[in-house]
């Protein structure tokens, strides 16, 4: 059996500002996908000079999280530029999996509604597949209910026209959806394991996603949680992309 992605090439579009957190995110994707570095190209967009590479060189695209919020009243020039790049992915036929911030962006760009009604502190959240998920080529093979890692201030309140809700949950009603025929988005973070999110918390201690005094409690909870079923979406996405490319 071939190693994951042995015959394919994937792109990770990174929206993190700061070398340490960007490296941590790349490490999380390498571990979570099982892809080697030469098959998962790390492509940060941290200035308005950074643009997407030729997408035809890749079988699929991952988009990591971001410190931005689409509900902020003012979008800086970098955020506007990030949106332009993400929109190119949204309308491209190449399969794309957007995580966390992509959940908000794809709804925002498609005419849906994003607000701050269902924030989730950093930690674990229950994710429940919808009936429509059974027909989805990526999400359809996941467990009907599983636990995902979350941490966000804003959430999707109304899906764009044509989007298909794939997963919901008791603390956030939109945990995953298919934005179009080539774009999937999740509110939860399948790329991180327990140690990954604990490491990530160190970069956002005062960002409002959790209280510093909660770190020990959150660490204990995530270490005691089986996060494998959430991570499976990464592998299903890779398999889908490789099958689509005939690899």
Automatic annotation (TrEMBL):
<dbReference type="InterPro" id="IPR044992">
    <property type="entry name" value="ChyE-like"/>
</dbReference>
<dbReference type="InterPro" id="IPR017926">
    <property type="entry name" value="GATASE"/>
</dbReference>
<dbReference type="GO" id="GO:0005829">
    <property type="term" value="C:cytosol"/>
</dbReference>
<dbReference type="InterPro" id="IPR029062">
    <property type="entry name" value="Class_I_gatase-like"/>
</dbReference>
<protein>
    <submittedName>
        <fullName>Glutamine amidotransferase</fullName>
    </submittedName>
</protein>
<dbReference type="Pfam" id="PF00117">
    <property type="entry name" value="GATase"/>
</dbReference>
<keyword id="KW-0315">Glutamine amidotransferase</keyword>
<dbReference type="GO" id="GO:0016740">
    <property type="term" value="F:transferase activity"/>
</dbReference>
<feature type="domain" description="Glutamine amidotransferase">
    <location>
        <begin position="45"/>
        <end position="193"/>
    </location>
</feature>
<keyword id="KW-0808">Transferase</keyword>
